[in-house]
Amino acid sequence: MDTFVYKLGDALYINLTNQCTNACDFCIRKGRQGMGEYHLWLKKEPTAQQVIDQIGDPKAYSEIVFCGYGEPTIKIDQLVQIAKKIKADGGKVRINTNGHANIYHGRDVVPELVGLVDVMSISLNAPDAEEYQRICRSRYGLESFNAMLDFARKCLGNIPEVVLSVVDVLSPADIEKCRKIAEEVGAKLRVRQKE
Fold first, then answer.
1. pLDDT of residue 94
2. What's the N-to-C CA distance of the chain in angstroms?
3. How far apart are CA 162 and CA 158, in angstroms?
């Protein structure tokens, strides 16, 4: 059975799509069907209403995170509709994204997210465009790195908290370079563990 909503710790996660603009070397999707007992490969993507029906009271969770087995901003219309309901019901929203929403949709989607998203967590993953493309293998090639940073900059001042994240498989030197990039952008840096 398809899993659209799943609980990890005290947070609730939303799995909108398996589509992604990247094919990262370290992605959890390689060789795994899901997280724990949750099967996250979707046979059919959910409607916004199907997800809303499964959320219940969003205040029962520390936050509700758009982070499935794909890039959630690909389904921007459904994401906005669901986030509006979560916020109306007093919940906190985080999006985990690769930052390619604007290049994917061909427009700046950040204004559509204002007031709906508390935390935007963007996967930086590398200290430069060449390394990013080597490990993330984006459909947008070398352009993808700057597109991601541009998205992060557009989020600043519009989304209360903007975080760039890297996986701890990077060398300490590369993590330090990523820290400087985050500082230049004006975002926080989070070093996350490889799943």
1. 98
2. 23
3. 9
In this structure, the number of other CB atoms found within 10 A of the CB of residue 156 comes to 14
* Model confidence pLDDT, tens digit, residues 114-129: 999 999 999 999 999 9
Contacts (Cβ under 8 Å, ≥6 apart) of 110: 101, 102, 151, 154, 155, 158, 159
Question: Rounded to whole angstroms, how far apart are CA atoms 178 and 42?
Answer: 33
- pLDDT digit string (tens) for 145-161? 999 999 999 999 999 99
Nearest 5 degrees, angle CA 3-CA 80-CA 155?
115
In contact, 195 and 164? CB cutoff 8 Å: no
Q: Output the pLDDT for position 124.
A: 95
Structural domains in the chain, sorted by start: 5-192 (3.20.20.70)
The span from the CA of 70 to the CA of 22, in Å, is 9
Phi/psi region, residue 27 (left: phi>0; alpha: psi -120 to 50; beta: rest), is beta
pTM: 0.93
d(CA 130, CA 174): 13
The dihedral sign for the CA sequence 80, 82, 83, 85: positive
Q: Give, to the nearest 10 degrees, the angle between helix 129-136 and helix 143-155.
A: 100
Under DSSP, the state recorded for 58 is G
